[in-house]
Amino acid sequence: MKLERVELLHVALPLVTPFRTSFGTMTSKDTFLLHVVTDEAEGWSEFAADPEPLYCSEFVAGAEIVIRDFLLPRVAALPEPTTAAVAPAMASVKGHELAKAALETALLDAELRAYGMSLATFLGSVHERVPAGVSVGIKNSVPELLDDVERYLAEGYIRIKLKIEPGWDVEPVRAVRERFGDQLPLQVDANTAYTLADAEHLRKLDDFGLLLIEEPLEENNIHAHAQLQRRLATPVCLDESIHSARDAASAIAMDACRVVNVKPARVGGYPQARRIHDVAAAHGVPVWCGGMLETGIGRAPNLALAALPGFTLPGDTSASSRYFAEDITEPFVLQDGHLPVPTAPGIGIDPLPDALARFTTATRELYA
Ligand code: OSB
Ligand code: MG
Question: With a cut of 0.90, is the ipTM above it?
Answer without folding.
Answer: yes
